[in-house]
């Protein structure tokens, strides 16, 4: 709210001055203020890739090839699971120790938290259009920042800064729409709760003037045409500690955590009782039917089976239903922990001769090319190199 206040004040001051003096002074100050916000955001959003390093420019505008009338639910949309974790390493963990120590966090191996290695900016340029983001208050409890379980991912880039960066990207890519999945991360510290104060902070960020003009304001997944140039909020949080008007005033679709069955290969979630709008979700993030003593290959095989089954159901399902398939997973409690990277890419050793879920998914994606797959949420979406294209059926 503080940042928005400054920007709004600057823009108002600029308008007032422009009317009286025409001075460019406040205009450049507003530019500097935006640069400052984008700089802070870059810790989680990343920096825009220089044009020479962009892999395939047409992927940055792939939605431009679909007609306005296409329903968002009828598209195949690549996603990035835990998109904010791309630079989480031992160095980042150490740099944030002074803060996490205040919360008495006993953090695990950084590999247990890291699910990506390319930035959010790079993901958007490469065609990813669904961002899975997890927020909770920072150590002071005054603003919302990004976490993966008890791992704080950054301090400068909060939810508000990241929204500005996504909005700036959308301004430059007006044919595109970005689905922003925001989930309250519960396990950040002892006693953490999605309290009225936390809910109010998120409400304020999602109803600011900048948010109102850049977030799709409907409460349904409509057509691509109405969503172009906008971010569509997927609400993986409840507003149950506030009066009902707060929930009713929020845009986007509500995939309530209360209905989201934990670690399930086959969730049916009716997200709008009056329209019957339904989401079918595969989110088996830890294939716990496999014994803890089993090797990484067996865990990868179990996850792959859930993913392939769900993609077939998506291909055959009604185009008005939302399908979300998480190809991401882990098995941290196994005797030899299977980190997200091992699940996605294999370990690069004899233990995983066929690679991970990402490599082994390619034949299924080839078989289903051209079919509607819905949202396909990936870990380490950048490997193998043509994975996003394969999801898109290109
Ligand atoms: C870029 O992507 C488009 C669409 O995905 C594809 O048709 C084209 O072959 C790709 N070009 C290169 C150089 O990879
Ligand atoms: C990644 O994190 C490290 C440690 O905090 C930091 O030094 C580095 O600048 C970050 N890299 C990028 C690309 O932001
Ligand atoms: C952290 O541990 C200290 C010492 O046990 C305790 O005083 C403090 O309240 C704890 N802080 C939190 C946030 O749990
Ligand atoms: C259900 O969908 C209708 C039509 O889009 C919308 O007006 C209403 O707000 C939605 N209800 C909820 C609870 O999202
Ligand atoms: C998932 O649920 C749907 C609807 O309840 C059912 O038709 C389908 O067979 C289930 N698939 C699996 C793999 O359990
Ligand atoms: C769709 O359903 C039909 C009939 O149940 C089945 O034969 C076909 O293999 C399914 N297609 C896919 C892509 O799963
Ligand atoms: C993993 O375990 C399965 C089941 O015990 C076994 O068949 C397979 O050969 C093992 N794979 C590797 C690469 O060790």
Which key terms come to mind for this protein?
eleven-stranded mixed β-sheet, PLC-like_Pdiesterase_TIM-brl, globular, 14% strand, TIM Barrel, binds 2-acetamido-2-deoxy-beta-D-glucopyranose, 11 strands, 36% helix, 2 domains, alpha/beta
Low-confidence stretches: 9-22
Structural class: alpha/beta
Number of helices: 15
Radius of gyration: 21 Å
Overall residue-averaged pLDDT value: 93
Mass-distribution shape: globular
Count every beta strand, where a strand is a DSSP E run of 2 or more residues. Answer: 11
- CATH topology of the largest domain, which one? TIM Barrel
Q: Any idea of the CATH class of the largest domain?
A: Alpha Beta
What is the domain tally? 2
- Bound small molecules, deduplicated: 2-acetamido-2-deoxy-beta-D-glucopyranose
Tell me about the largest β-sheet.
11 strands, mixed
CATH superfamily of the largest domain, please?
Answer: Phosphatidylinositol (PI) phosphodiesterase
Distance between the termini: 42 Å
Architecture (CATH level 2) name of the largest domain: Alpha-Beta Barrel
At a glance:
The chain is an alpha/beta fold and 394 residues long. It has 15 helices and eleven strands.
Describe this structure as you would to a colleague.
One of its GO terms (molecular function) is phosphoric diester hydrolase activity. It is a single chain. The protein is α/β, with parallel strands linked by helices and 394 residues long. It folds into 2 domains: 60-258, Phosphatidylinositol (PI) phosphodiesterase (TIM Barrel); 260-394, Phosphatidylinositol (PI) phosphodiesterase (TIM Barrel), CATH 3.20.20. The chain contains 15 helices and 11 strands. Strands 1, 2, 3, 4, 5, 6, 7, 8, 9, 10 and 11 form an 11-stranded mixed beta sheet that branches. β3 (144-148) and β4 (151-152) form a beta hairpin. α1 packs antiparallel against α2 (25-45). The protein starts with a helix and ends with a helix.
